[in-house]
Amino acid sequence: MMLALVVAAMASLNKPETIARLGRVFGLQGGASGEASRVASPPPSASQPTSVDATPVVQLGPEWDQVQDNAPFLSAEDPAWYGLFGAVSQLSLDELQQRSLGEVTYAQLRAQPAAYRGRVVTVRGTVRQVIAKPLPENPLGLSQLFQLTVATAGGGEWPLIVYVRELPTGFPNAGNDLHEASTIDAAFFKNWSYSYGDGVGVAPVAVARTFAWKSAPVANPARPQREPVAVWTMILPAAVFAVALAAWVMRRTQADPRADLADALPGGDSIEAVDVRDQLARLASDAEESP
Length: 291
Hints:
By secondary structure, this protein is α+β, with helices and mostly antiparallel strands. The protein folds into 2 domains: 2-208, no CATH class; 229-289, no CATH class. It is 36% helix and 19% strand. The chain contains 10 helices and 5 strands. It has helices at residues 2-14, 16-26, 35-38, 78-89, 93-99, 106-111, 113-116, 229-254, 257-264, 276-289, and strands at 120-134, 144-152, 160-164, 180-196, 199-208. A 5-stranded mixed barrel has the order 1-2-3-5-4, surrounded by 4 helices. The termini are far apart.
């Protein structure tokens, strides 16, 4: 049952465009020639803890003896695979978090798969790829799973693979160049070996029902400031009046004083045309002629 899913996944990974895409996602040089290309996964670190004290979420019965690390998915692993999925599906996110051994790294899972088998671990990093995988008929009645490719925090260029039944609300349900920061509490299954370029890659695989994720806040666009219309309707007329008044005062104070004198002269003659002494003489003559 799971074999068909695995075959489809392996076929997709072997495609040149898939190899190139994964290379872009994780900064790898897929398809390179030489010895470096035949070793597509770093050796596990020897400085990791040698024992883990925790209870698996599922009883590791005889079916788990069929699970092989550093190998492709095998049909013989189906009972263990679906048994683990059934177990995590019964647990809430809070229960999974409480049972988690804590945050783990790629190197820890690579070095000690048997110690983490069936136990809940916390994977923190960035989901870079989501692929919906249709399922054949299976004991859980699932129609599909979502395969997440996760670049772990501090994990370098080597990814972890997490299969989930459900995506959080609003999470992209497909994509090859995502940057979604996530925290995933998942039960570890095995180290999966897959073809990569001219060599092979090894990716730890874990399973969960869903995971915690929050969408990034969207910044509100700056609103254009509105003109204070009511204020301007009061200020503008007052400013116009003040300017007009100032102009009138300036004109009055700076006007030629002779112009006012000319306006007062009989006949409206300008001061330039009439001598003051002549005007006084005219006034005196008028006074003598009057009875």
